[in-house]
Specification:
The complex is a heterodimer of chains A (257) and B (331). Chain A is of the alpha/beta class. In chain A, 39% of the residues lie in helices and 24% in strands. Chain A is globular and about 60 Å long. Chain B has helices at 2-29, 37-52, 76-96, 102-122, 124-127, 149-174, 177-187, 189-194, 199-225, 236-248, 253-276, 284-303. The chains are: A alpha/beta (257), B mainly alpha (331).
Chain lengths: 257, 331
């Protein structure tokens, strides 16, 4: 909210989403600054995932406006938002179970010559070069996240933590400009969490904007430049983690849930 | 007579292979439960018929009524049949595939199949109603005597060319990055959407491609049979094709071909042989055929849900994996 106009990559204005009278998200306005990692915290059922879904377009907003890079995207379908660089991950595993781990990553790649009916009918020679480049890129990611050995296994057979990693890697294959992560590190081994943390920081250094839902407050503290707090569908505070800790009512809302 | 019998078998095999390959693109690869598949085959057959027949006012044809009658030479009726299947997929797809949840799509398509059959069955002026169309001209019948063995060979060859063409197209789609995207959509549509894939466009495309191939299969069939009526495309025909695909292996083109040979061709053949051998009252055997097909499907779903030839796992060159594990069941 404090960001300068040109630094606001993503702006939500008065977003609401209700389910048959239940206000899961209730008039939330916030701005995500460019090139920063922004946290979104709050108790279970606060509406964080619903808010992320509305921003990504996987759920339509009941009311409100979403601007991405200054443009109103409220009516754009999810896939168009993704192609423009606004990419979300899911809180629950959403792997393509009967595709291999490597294929899961390749699917996400944008601008693949073979990824159209025309390209497919043209045959392998038409798209092989793209495929090879992308396989290399995907293998690079797998190596980074320590999953190289798993590339040919069905994604459905991965463990919960491995699926979380897959979720992040798949989103990165799209070269997003703004990444919406919904609890990317829940159930992940502490050492891998460290790696993800390190990797997210390097992505931030490269200019990626991240909005991240996370329950582990020490992670939020280490990673996030600023934090928004939601409870019962409403935005109840924002600022750095340190400043939020000093606010009694926010501590209450978060702890009481 | 014997040649005719063999030819009949081969042409049915070809038509069924083409149909199951199309169903594999839609259901096996893309996850569209097209319970109205047979309607697209019928559309192709009717289109090929009215494109090749003379107007219904013509001397020998006045016992039936139908629209069109353009007397167009081969291969226009076959191409027209494919186009009809593809074009019909547009309105059906737009109504069914855009908004409905995928389990409701299956039901909506089944209902579509029943409605279409009932309408054609009862609207006589359109395509001669329940009696159907007869005396449909055969391909090249002006150039070749159709009552010879060599015409049968020619027809088999034409069918084989179509099988080859469809196999080629299906293989290119299934083995491409586009096919991978279709499989991803089948596995988790919302996740695919969030990765920038447009599921409605993907499904519509496969609905039209599959519809066109189904239409071609209908055109081939009607050119051989020379008759076509609503009783030949009742919705259970779709179920048989699904059975073929489940038995053969969803997502695998080779499986689709095997399934086509095992179920529609195999079961029909066994039934016919049993009737010929007079093993029981003639109307009991066909009914038992349905029981047998049903049990066959259930058996496969229970014991080998991935089919005879499961969808292959794609291992890329340079993968650290050295030994190929045989297919792994769903987690
Ligand atoms: N599709 C839906 N239909 C009805 N109610 C829903 C739906 N999705 C979410 N809700 C409700 O909206 C509220 C907010 O849910 P949401 O998933 O956004 O919470 P959250 O903040 O992400 O919680 P958590 O930290 O547990 O993931 C919950 O009370 C939930 O029951
Ligand atoms: Mg959540």
């Amino acid at each position: 909210m404090s960001a300068q106009p040109d630094q606001r990559m993503l702006v939500a204005e008065d977003i609401s989403r209700h389910f048959e009278g239940m206000h899961a998200v209730d008039g939330v306005s916030l701005a995500v600054p460019r090139g920063k990692i922004t946290g979104l915290i709050g108790p279970n059922g606060a509406g964080k995932s619903t808010f992320m879904a509305v921003v990504a377009g996987t759920l339509p907003a009941s009311s409100g406006t979403i601007r991405f890079e200054g443009e109103d995207i409220t009516r754009l379908p999810t896939y168009t938002r993704a192609r423009r660089g606004l990419v979300r991950t899911f809180q629950l595993p959403s792997e393509f179970a009967r595709l291999t781990v490597l294929e899961n990553l390749l699917v996400a790649a944008p601008h693949h010559r073979g990824d159209s009916l025309f390209g497919a009918l043209m045959g392998k020679r038409y798209w092989l070069k793209d495929e090879e480049t992308l396989v290399d890129e995907a293998r690079g990611l797998l190596k980074r996240f320590g999953m190289s050995a798993k590339e040919s296994d069905y994604a459905g057979l991965m463990s919960g933590g491995q699926k979380r990693l897959l979720e992040i890697m798949r989103a990165l294959m799209l070269h997003p400009r703004c990444l919406l992560l919904d609890e990317p590190m829940s159930g992940v081994h502490p050492r891998v969490v460290e790696q993800i943390q390190y990797y997210l920081q390097s992505l931030r250094a490269d200019g990626l904007t991240i909005l991240m839902v996370e329950h582990e407050l020490h992670l939020v503290e280490q990673l996030c430049d600023s934090v928004f707090v939601m409870a019962q569908g409403k935005l109840i505070g924002s600022g750095t983690m340190a400043s939020l800790r000093r606010q009694r009512e926010i501590v209450d809302a978060y702890l009481v849930g | 007579m014997n040649t005719y019998y063999a030819a009949n078998l081969l042409i049915y095999a070809g038509v069924d292979i083409i149909a199951v390959l199309a169903l594999n693109l839609q259901f096996g690869v893309s996850g569209i439960v097209n319970f109205s598949f047979i309607v697209f085959q019928a559309a192709g057959a009717y289109a090929a018929a009215v494109l090749s027949m003379p107007p219904h006012t013509a001397a020998d044809y006045s016992f039936q009524v139908y629209f069109g009658g353009y007397q167009l030479p081969f291969p226009i009726p076959w191409i027209g049949g494919a186009l009809a299947g593809g074009v019909l997929a547009i309105p059906v797809g737009l109504v069914v595939l855009r908004k409905l949840r995928s389990d409701y799509q299956a039901i909506a398509l089944l209902v579509t199949s029943i409605i279409a059959n009932t309408v054609i069955n009862n609207a006589r002026p359109f395509l001669n109603g329940a009696a159907g169309l007869a005396l449909v001209p055969q391909p090249l019948q002006d150039q070749v005597d159709t009552n010879t063995d060599s015409y049968l060979y020619l027809y088999i060859a034409l069918t084989a060319v179509c099988v080859g063409l469809v196999w080629f197209l299906a293989a290119r789609i299934v083995n491409s990055p586009y096919g991978r995207t279709l499989r991803a959509m089948r596995e988790h549509e919302l996740a695919a959407t969030a990765l920038g894939k447009n599921p409605v466009a993907l499904k519509m495309t496969m609905f039209m491609v599959g519809g066109a191939i189904a239409g071609l299969s209908g055109a081939i069939l009607v050119g051989f049979l020379t008759v076509w009526a609503p009783s030949t495309w009742l919705y259970p025909e779709t179920i048989i094709l699904f059975a073929a695909l489940i038995v053969g292996g969803r997502g695998n083109n080779l499986g689709a071909i095997l399934g086509a040979l095992l179920v529609p061709v195999g079961f029909e053949e066994v039934t016919r042989q049993l009737i010929r051998m007079n093993v029981g009252p003639p109307n009991v055997i066909p009914a038992l055929e349905w029981v047998a097909i049903g049990l066959f499907i259930l058996g496969f779903l229970w014991f080998r849900p991935e089919g005879v030839r499961p969808e292959p796992r794609h291992v890329f060159e340079g993968s650290p994996e050295t030994e190929l594990v045989e297919n792994v069941g769903t987690a």
